[in-house]
Amino acid sequence: MGKRVAIVGFGQTYQRSSRKDVNGPELINEAVRAALEDAGLTIKDIDAIVIGNMDHFEGVNYVDSWSVEGSGGVMKPIFKLTTGGTTGSTVAMAGYYHVASGMFDRVLVIGWEKNSESDTTGAIVTAFNPVWERPRFGGAIAGLAVEASKYMHNYKVTERDGARVAVRERLHALNNPYTHLHQEWMKSMEIEQIVDLLITSEENQMLAYPLRMSDMCPRTDGAAAAIFASEDIAEKIAPKPAWVVSTHNRHNYALLGDIDWDSNDTLESASKAVFKDAGIKEPFKEIDVCELYLPYSYAGLKWMESIGFCGPGEGPKLVWDGHTDMDGELPVNPSGGVMSSNPIGATGLLRVGEGALQVMGKAGDRQVKGGDVKYAFTTGFGGCNWADVMLLGKKKPS
Amino acid sequence: MTQKSEQQQELLTVNSGEAFQPFEWSVGKYGSKFLAEIRDNQKFIGIKCPKCGRVYVPPRKVCGRCYVEMDEFVPVSTEGEIGVCAIIQFGFIDPSTGHQEPVPYGYAFIKLDGADTFLPYYIDSTDPEKVKVGARVKAVFEEKRTGTMLDIKHFVLLD
User: Fold this and answer.
1) The CATH number of A5-120+218-230 is which of 3.40.47.10, 3.40.50.300, 2.40.50.140, 3.30.1330.60?
2) Average pLDDT for A12-19
3) Are A258 and B128 inside 8 Å of each other by CB?
4) Structural domain contains residue B109
């Protein structure tokens, strides 16, 4: 199955709605320096680079070339990958494959985006079919609103359930200095109060029932970088590296109209494959922490079921019972998740990196389980219904 | 030249202006037949997989699941039912058409009778009591049709 691989360092920039103080390469450089410092390595130690963003947000192709000064890639092998929302997790998988092949020892993986440089809808629309889908495009909102409303139709799920997920993400974000949204006003209120406020406030704009502004992710500028290292040297670099236990990805989409709105089949299939590889039979019990790509609140209910953490329709109870909060059985998104920060090309890598920090015991104020994390489960998910899953672990895989 | 301090550093941006890059996409044989049938006869057609029997709308060459080529075109109704739907209240200028649909508007993924896939399109209603899963709808076509999806004006609810 190839060499065993671990993440030995991770870095991220501060994520903000607009970083006018840096251009693309400069932003990338911040993340790379942070990752190298975290690993105690220099750029000379890096054998190859994998980099990605969603081209259309900045409208400048060939980032692998024009960012070399920022990435440190001058005269190094570089691959660019771009897969929309999953870009960050895809580059992580590719970094893993490079090292697992046995042909590279230390690979630097970079995900980044300057969402502020363009109109979000304009960029997103380019991912959809110009003949069949663009003429009557409902925006990114439509796809999410229809999934939420079908989920509510199938089970007795309410707006309060969606809001409860949003509140969890934003409360967790308060412990994460790097993330974009810090809704400090939530500190002084009880969870139930915040939920009630969100679903009744006139200011909380209804976008498409049941989705309000508070149910959605922001647009963010930010970058992240991770260093994957081979089993031959990982433990010399990091005392507690985060081993890649298993990773899988699934695609199943030609047109939006082909999607089965009752399930999340790609996420379900990729998750099953990862659990099988790891010998995990009871995911809810055996996983210690999750960093899930949840672009909107209802995903934090329905996709918990798709992954297999609970049965169909049981998502709301799992969340309301507090199991996914910081002190719960299965904390979800201690970083605040995608709903607190969404620099598209980096977002998937932030999930992998934050999962790695949890395993390595380096997550600071957002560390769970007292630093004793056996398994961190991370996902990437894109607006076109594909899924990346990467399971990180404390123990070197056998 | 005076050295500006960190605080006084000007942060400029440069605009693309009205830059626009046009495209002309090939629809292919299968999609062309579908669009021509709408343009000329105000009817829909699908294509059936010989292996799994799934009927795809719009028709296409290959059944993705079976990875076999298809050639059996079948008629598909202009009526169907709503699979999933939403009332969109968030306005945006569609960057590919320049069109901004006034909000609110109804949006649904419609399963036409005879098809196994959904067709996303506008619904001519914003009543959440009526625009719902399972509601029966029918296509209304434009008077002037040119061979694009916009030849379908919208879908109306059948009470």
Assistant:
1) 3.40.47.10
2) 97
3) no
4) yes
pLDDT digits (tens, 9 = 90+) for A239-265: 999 999 999 999 988 898 999 999 999
Per-residue confidence (pLDDT) for residue B18, from 0 to 100: 81
For an interface test with A, which of B14, B38, B84 has the most A Cβ atoms less than 10 Å from its Cβ? B84
**Cα A345 to Cα A88: distance, rounded to the nearest angstrom:** 5
Q: Closest partner residue to A132 among B58, B96, B133, by Cβ?
A: B58
Instruction: Tell me, yes or no, whether B141 lies in a domain.
Output: yes
Contact B105, B150 (CB under 8 A): no
Q: Do A150 and B94 touch (CB under 8 A)?
A: no
What domain range is B125 assigned to?
28-157
Model confidence over A57-104: pLDDT tens digits? 999 999 999 999 999 999 999 999 999 999 999 999 999 999 999 999
Q: What is the ipTM of this complex?
A: 0.91
Contacting A with CB below 8 Å, chain B residues are 9, 11, 13, 16, 23, 25, 27, 31, 56-58, 60, 64, 83-90, 92, 94-97, 107-109, 117-122, 128, 132-133, 148-150
DSSP code of B114? T
Asked whether residue B73 is domain-assigned, the answer is yes
Q: Indicate the length of chain A as a whole number.
A: 398
Q: Please name every residue paired with A226 in a beta bridge, in sequence order, or none if there are none.
A: A10, A109
DSSP type of residue B61: S
Write the residue in A138, A254, A259 that is nearest to B107 by C-beta: A138
Is residue B99 a part of any domain in this protein? yes
Residues of A in contact with B92 (CB under 8 A): 121, 139
**Residue the block writes with tokens 């904390």:** A331
Kindly determine whether residue A209 and residue B128, on different chains, have CB atoms separated by under 8 Å: yes
Domains contained in chain B, number: 1
pLDDT of residue B97: 76
Separation of alpha carbons B21 and B99, rounded Å: 17
Output the CA torsion sign for A334, A249, A71, A359: positive
> Do β-strands B72-76 and B44-48 pair in parallel, antiparallel, or remain unpaired?
antiparallel
Mutate to test the interface with B, among A55, A151, A255 (most CBs of B within 10 A): A255
* Mean pLDDT calculated for residue range A24-47: 98
Q: Taking CB atoms and an 8 Å limit, are A131 and B119 in contact across chains?
A: no
